[in-house]
Amino acid sequence: MADYYNDEDLARFGEIAKSNPDLFRKFMAWYEASFTPGLLTKREKVLVGVAVAHAVQCPYCIDAYTKACLEEGMSMEHIAEAVHAASAIRGGASLIHAIQAQNAADKISL
Amino acid sequence: MSISTAFHDKLNGACTVPLQAHGLEVLQVNLGYRCNMECRHCHVNAGPDRKEIMSSENIDRVIDIVSGNGISTLDITGGAPELHPEFTRLVREAMTAGCHVIVRCNLTVLLEPGMEHLFEFYADFPVEIVASFPYYREADLDRMRGAGSFAKSIRVMKRLNQMGYGVPGSGRVLNLVYNPGGAFLPASQCSLEAEFKNALEKHDIVFSRLLSLVNMPIGRFRDFLVRTNNYDAYVKRLADAFNPDTLAGVMCRQIVSVAWDGRLFDCDFNQMLDMPIEPPYPGRLEDFDYDMLANRRIIVGNHCFGCTAGQGSSCGGAID
Ligand code: SF4
Ligand code: SF4
Question: Between residues 54 and 73 of chain A, which touch chain B (CB distance below 8 Å)?
Answer without folding.
Answer: 67, 70-73
